[in-house]
Structure formats: C-alpha cells, structure tokens
Amino acid sequence: MTRIQALVDAVPPSARVVDVGADHGLISLGLAKRSDIGAVLATDISGDSLSKLTKALPQEAAGIQQKIHMTVTDGLQQLPWSSADTIVIAGMGGPLIERILRDSLPFAKRAKTWVLSPQSGLADFRRFLQHLAMPVEEDLVEEAGIFYPLFRVFPGCQRSPQSDYAEALSDTEAEYGPTLLRQHHPVLMEQLHREQKTLSGLIQKLAGQGSLTAKKRRQELENQCAAIRSILKEQAEHSCDEK
Questions:
Q1: How far apart are CA 45 and CA 142, in angstroms?
Q2: Phi, psi dihedrals of residue 153, rounded to the nearest 5°
Q3: SS3 sequence of 60-111
Q4: How far is residue 23's CA from residue 41's CA, in Å, rounded to a whole number?
Q5: Closest by alpha carbon to 175, among 94, 121, 101, 225?
Q6: Is 201 exposed, middle or buried (CB count within 10 Å of its CB: 0-12, 13-18, 19+)?
Q7: Strand, helix or coil at 146?
Q8: Distance from C-alpha of 144 to C-alpha of 213, rounded to nearest angstrom
Q9: pTM of the entire structure?
C-alpha cells in the first residue's frame, strides 16, 4: 500500500477532492479518513468499477460515508461540482491522463493542486508538464518491485525560472525526471540499478543473433545501458563529494 498512501499523503488540505478513475476506491477512502479533507468525488468511466467502492463504503464510519460522492463519467467531464481544490489522477497511462486534463483544462486549472501518477509514457508526459509552464514537484515510490512516479502540479502558481521544468527537457531528463536526477533520488538510483541489470541480460541474449533486427535492438539497449551508467557514475561521484 506504499503507493496508495503516498498518493493520499500528497493531497494538501482540501475542501473538495476529485479522484478520477477511482476504481477500487482506496485513494478516495484514504482521503475521506483525513480530517482536513472535506469531501471526495470518486469518478470512473465504468459503473462496475465504482461498484467496488459502493460495496466497501458501508463498512466505514458514517462520517466517512458522508464525505464520499460518486459519479460515472469520462475523466473530468460533466461533474456535479463546478470546482475542486485538488484533482487526483492515478493508475492509468500518461497519454490518458494528458487527454483527461486537456479535455477539461478550464475546470482543471481552477484547482489548486493536481496529484498525478502515470504508469506509462513518462517521457512524453513530463514534456507535457513542461509545456504547461506550471510549478511541478516530483517523487518516486517503489512497491513490490514496481516504481511509481508521483507529480504534484500547481495550476494557479507561476513557475519559477529556476524550476527543473523551466527549460526544455533532455531525453534523459524526460525519461527519468529532472528533479529526481538532480536530487540523486535514492529510489530512482535503485530503479536504474535494476534497469541496468535487466538490460545487460537482454544484451547478452541478443549477442549470438546475427539478424539486422537483433543487431539494431542490441545497439538500442547498449545506448540505454550507457546512459544509465553515466547517471550512476555521476551519482557515485556526488556521493564521494559529499563525504
């Protein structure tokens, strides 16, 4: 439950929170249990998905039940609320999260905070955030061997010129996160070590294959491995400098 708790903790005190794609409702329930959260609107495109939360809700205290509202809809469209303090979108791919925000950008921009956790398409998603010119905070959590990025975006604030997202992102920054790289984030370093091991194994498997496709794929993997080695080398040198 590390990821779910991290998402719940990332939400600032809010009168209203929209949990998009609530599905099992664990985030909605976690938020409703906080005394500094007024109400939670759990949405999903599927009524069957929201039925999981509907079944779980009677087991909760009356005060928590009263905080949670539900609606079946696509993303942020046709909500019963005209505004919300915080929008949470997690557990789906980066392209889908981007589409949900773009389709309802006027509503989304009225929120003070977005809490986002895409599961794929991270490079393009980070470039999307960079183009929005909004302040971005980024974290990374690991659960059961899977790594989950977590973004907090502040639509109503001006992005600082010193922000990690102030300039166009390099390929490496887009892939792994400019803030996480600058911080030498320990969870990112763990992720990179695992990726390096996986890539090395794939490269070895391709070593004996002579087809052009195999050679091209091996070169791509070697380039990825070299980029990771460079990051890890910089991290090692940073650690030595600190000592």
A1: 27
A2: -120, 140
A3: CCHHHHHHEEEEECCCCCCCCCCCCCEEEEEEECHHHHHHHHHHCHHHHHCC
A4: 12
A5: 121
A6: exposed
A7: strand
A8: 33
A9: 0.92
User: Could you give the 3-state DSSP secondary structure of residue 183?
Assistant: coil
What does each of the 243 residues of the chain score in pLDDT, given as a tens digit? 689 999 999 999 999 999 999 999 999 999 999 999 999 999 999 889 899 999 999 999 999 999 999 999 999 999 999 999 999 999 999 999 999 999 999 999 999 999 999 999 999 999 999 999 999 999 999 999 999 999 999 998 999 999 999 999 999 999 999 999 999 999 999 999 999 999 999 999 888 787 889 889 999 999 999 999 999 988 777 665 665
The two tokens of residue 204 are: 């070895």
Q: Alpha-carbon distance 17 to 111, whole Å?
A: 9
